[in-house]
Amino acid sequence: MQVELRGIAKRFPGVIANHDVDLTIRAGAVHALIGENGAGKSTLMKILYGVQGADDGTIVVDGRERHFSSPTDAIEAGIGMVFQHFMLADNLTVLENIVLGAEKMHGIGEKARGRVREISAEFGFDIDPDVRVAELGVAARQRVEILKVLYRGARLIILDEPTAVLVPQEVEVLFANLRELVASGCSVLFISHKLDEVLQIADDITVMRRGTTVGTADPATATRQQLAELMVGAELPSPELSADTVTDTPVLSLRSISLVDDTGRTLLADLDLTIHRGEIVGIAGVEGNGQTELVEVIMGMRRATEGSIVLAEEDITRLSVRKVRERGVGFIPEDRHRHGVVLDFSLWENRILGHQTTAPAVRGPLLSPGGARRDAERIIDAYDVRTPSVHTTARALSGGNQQKFIVGREMSGDPILLLASHPTRGVDVGAQAAIWDHIRRARQEGLGVLLISADLDELIGLSDRLEVILRGHFTAQLDPREVTAQELGTAMTGGAA
Amino acid sequence: MRHLTKAAVLVGAAAVVLSACGTAADNDDSDDNADGQQCEAVELEGDPQVALAYDVGGRGDQSFNDAAYAGLERAQTEFGFEGTEGEAASDESEEVREQRLRGFADDGYNVIVGVGFAYSESVDKVAPDYPNVSFAVIDGFDPTEDDVNCNVAYLTYAENEGSFLVGVAAAETTESNTVGFVGGVNNPLIQKFEAGFKAGVEEANPDAEVVTTYIEESDPRGFGDPAGGQAAAEGLINDGADVIFHAAGASGIGVFDAVTSADLWAIGVDSDQYLTASPEQQPHILTSMLKRVDVSTYDFIAAAFDGEPLSGYTEFTLADEGVDYSTSGDFLPADLVTEIDDYKQQIIDGDLEVPAEP
Amino acid sequence: MSQLVRRVTQMVTYSIVPTLVAIAAALLATAAIVWISGAPVGGFLEAMLSVPGQRDLVIIVNQASMIALSAFAAAICFRMNIFNIGVEGQYIIGACAGAFFAGSGIVPGPLNILATLVVAMLAGMAWAMIAAVLNVTRGVSEVISAIMLNYVALTLAGYLVKTYGSKSGYTFTTGTIPPSSQPLGFGIFSGAPDVWALSILAVIVAVGYSFLLGWTRFGFDLRTAGESRTAALANGINPKKMVLITMAISGAIAGLVWMPSFFGSTHTFGIPEYFQRGLGFTGLAVALLGRNTSLGIFFGATLFAFLSTQSNRLQSVGVGRDVVEITQGVVVLMVVIAFEISRRVKARREQESVARELGATSEGVRA
Q: C253 with C207, same domain?
């Protein structure tokens, strides 16, 4: 199916979100749409999927001009979308999730099950329709979402940052699935930040900037550098460290930390780790191998079953989260919506979050709204958080801007240790560079950092030392100056380093 | 009364309650209404205008309120007037009840009946402000007995006497020698039913045992909870009871359901419940203890029309057919009816004293 | 635009207008039901919208104070995202304990009032803690246990009064408050009874509530835990501890609910005449109606008290007064709907302003 967007424009009061957007998605091709956060990709997707109407321009599907007033219209025209946050009911089975709302197509019984099996086999999805979604991993859930869209007869599938939640090996599987899809004549609109992946999978590339399409590129000839420059109109930042600032003073020492959960499963096994002043230690690992638990144990959100944690010569093994934070630990959580911000609080209130006992957010047992507001304004300036004011709720901000605000908050009050989980996840290229800059600068002043990231380039470029974690064990120590992303990936999955 | 000015209220809002307000003891109203004062009949202004203030449930409850309405209806036909009615909301406050009575009085109604003892307190507070209005409280009592309102009549019943008679019926009918009693709410009024019933059973069949249960300790909802009534009756049936007397208002329907499915006997209350029961339940309603709320309501209104409004306590007994028992369905054998009527005569004659407390 | 102007404009747009629309819609819906049932609609509207007399006004103020107290007890839990449906039981226990204590006259004179308030608060708190502790230690839903405890509370209070109280007519009651401990009220109208002295408790609790939630660290922790338990946990707030403390505060406020009536009018406790039930449930509805804000709760409590007091007039126009419960229910429903709409409008406007900001900065940077 061929889809053309011609001269699309969308205006909100006082702002032009899209203008003069031209985009042609060929039948049987993976079309990558790239651009910074706020470049207008989301608005464009919403227009294409019928969530919002365009003020100008036309959508042409297989030569026919179409008007979508709701996603139902778009689905009918053969356009389906998989959102970044999955929309599946955990307690229902795969089949139930898929037929939900599409009962009229093949019923809810054997016929529907057969159809699901058929699609699953055709594209190599390997999905059992009768397993409960709660039992599936992230990658499988994503395949269920794609299945759901295909089941409804989609011929163009829009994927919004599909690789953000996947590990490298899972990305490979996804790409294999996508190739099957396009081979059968479907089209894919692939939205991403990750230029390497785009170059790997896309047949066509369109770049957006400031609400419009600024160019196309041929993945066969384009380089990362060129794409990035098209996106930001500037030089591509690199995460490389400058001088070595590592000292001999330990900030954090883990001694034989073990964690066993209620069911007797070992999550962390006998971990020893020391982070010094001015040192960034990267933890590399496939998600779910104990990184989350490691951070939670250090923060005091969970108690280690065995071992001790020493922060600047004080044993903090049994301290509460608040006490740990009061001793100068900054925390950038991996899931910013669940742990990093309260979505319905304004930014200045979110400035207080996690810092309820330290100035300038509070004065004794009372809040200090003035202090919190002023400091939130400082963060907004220093970290380029794009928001109308400190009274805006966190929910209204894009993910990247929320992340910048969190980083800014966690760096305030001069922490001695920063636990950073995926500090630049979902952040655009420009902001990524800024966050790296801030971390580097703090490192120079003596900050110790525990860095967890799925972005191997970030890990290699930013860390002074790398630990590989696998099933709760540290399995290898690597020197980031020598290791390549490929070697690191092998070590993470348990191969020889 | 020492009153705060409006300004003082505004200022006092921030101040501590205690310092601003003082207490009632500071200005004790010395009511010198002499004890044992003699009451004279209320002088109504103009023709009697009748208003009924119902208890929760209002007209259509097939019970207490409906019986009062029946009395009003009879009076309306006889004296040719148009009365008015007002209804209580559930969980309303004492003050709202008072306002309902004041509303009637202010609208010119001068014969006002509060249906149910919950009006005792409100009538007691409102009556002094309307000396030319005649009030009555069904099942009522005077909460301030040393300060009598002459324009208030308390209409009470000898429920213990009527219950005694159905107790005799139960004692002579039981085969298991166990009879049951289900009360709606465990208060002194319902205990009066229990006391009379127990005495009747004891008198007629000393070997029989009475098992008792109440649906609620104090919540008036015990009178409107058929499921609770059913559960209570089933409990008694498990204890061996084969005749169950209920004094539980609308919850009694549940009692009837329980005995119907267990194929046993029930005894109704207030009205002749054989007449209103469903065809399936009818064969299981042995008799009913009659409490003639309609009679007393009519009597009170009639007295007002006769220019001699009632005042103080008036008890309706077996003697004046204020309480009785029913024989609808003809389940009571002739010799039992004779026996019961014999006891009835003894009570009327004062030869037999029925206790009012269990 | 100054801060104040902005806040006032926001309040009018997003709170007052939707509320007025909701009330009008609720009255119309009830009028429609009255019309369908064949009763006089004109009479209904006239009775409901007539100006209350002095006595009625006093009743409205008195009732509103108790409803507001109950609503604050519910609201503080709503802010913490727990549903304290047990306010009903907590205030019954508070009332019963307070009445026994006050009637005993252990503490003489006016001091008895303060001491009784403390006893009532402690009793309400203790009752609330049963559900809270079960929730925190055993994972029992606080809604389920609190509903059960409401029944237990009523039965327990009835039993206690019957066992340790005295008989008054057909009802058992606790001892009466000694006259030296009966506060005078606020005489606003010369022809009507006083407004109960302890109605002022509603104002005191309202001020405390707003201050606690808006200005203290504890209030911030509470609101955070209410919005997101996970964010609370990650940021040094123990949600379990917050459940316990919030329920304790809620129970303490619930213990006060009936105190205005107790000290102002009944002076004794006994079910049914010497106690007013159902305030706990009304409070839940009013908290919802008032969006858990002090001003909103006062408004909602006054509205509910107004509606139920006015409904007494319906008897003279031949309309069953239960229709008022329809009005109250519909108001709550409509307010929930109206606020959801206004929330969405607000969120959209905010997003637009963020989009504007993004446009402006990128223009600025690139220019």
A: yes
Tens of pLDDT, residues B231-260:
999 999 999 999 999 999 889 999 999 999
Is residue A456 classed as helix, strand or coil in its secondary structure? helix
Helix axes C111-138, C142-164, angle to 10 degrees: 140
For C318-367, write each residue's pLDDT tens digit: 787 778 888 888 888 888 888 888 888 888 887 777 777 665 544 333 32
Q: How many CB atoms within 10 Å of residue A19?
A: 18
Spell out the alpha helix ranges (H) of chain C. 3-11, 17-36, 41-49, 54-79, 87-104, 111-138, 142-164, 200-215, 217-227, 229-234, 239-256, 259-261, 279-289, 294-310, 323-366
Domain limits for position A41: 3-232
Range of the domain at C215: 52-318
C-beta of residue A163 within 8 angstroms of C-beta of residue A171: yes
Q: How far apart are CA C101 and CA A386, in angstroms?
A: 60
Which tens digit of pLDDT belongs to each residue from C17-26?
888 888 888 8
* Helix ranges (DSSP H) in A184-236: 195-201, 224-232
C360 → chain A, closest CA residue: A15
Q: Does the distance separating the beta carbons of C366 and A233 come in below 8 Å?
A: yes
Q: Do C221 and A356 touch (CB under 8 A)?
A: yes
Contacts of B176 (CB under 8 A, 6+ apart): B240, B241, B242
Cβ-defined contact of C155 to B25 (cutoff 8 Å)? no
Rounded distance between C-alpha atoms, residue B336 and residue B327, angstroms? 11
Secondary element (H or E) of residue B165:
helix B159-173
CATH code at A417?
3.40.50.300
**Helix, strand or coil, per DSSP, at residue A107:** coil
Do residue A345 and residue C224 have CB atoms under 8 angstroms apart?
yes
Q: Which of C184, C194, C257, C281 should one mutate to test binding to chain B, selecting the residue with the greatest count of B CBs within 10 A?
A: C184
* Chain C residues lying within 8 Å of B141, measured CB to CB: 169-170
| pLDDT at position A405 over 90 | yes
C137 touches chain A (CB under 8 A): no
Helices C87-104/C54-79 angle, 10° precision: 120
Cα(C198)–Cα(C347) distance, integer angstroms: 41
- Euclidean distance between CA atoms C317 and C320, whole angstroms: 9
Q: Do C197 and C266 fall within a single domain? A: yes
Domain presence at residue C202: yes
β-pairing, B152-157 vs B312-316, is parallel
Cα A194 from Cα C22, distance rounded (Å): 49
Q: What is the pLDDT of residues A208-259, one digit of tens each?
A: 877 788 888 888 888 877 787 777 665 545 566 566 777 888 999 999 999 9
Q: What is the pTM of this model?
A: 0.80
Using the 3D structure, point to which of B129, B157, B185 is the last residue of a domain: B157
Tokens of C241: 């501890």
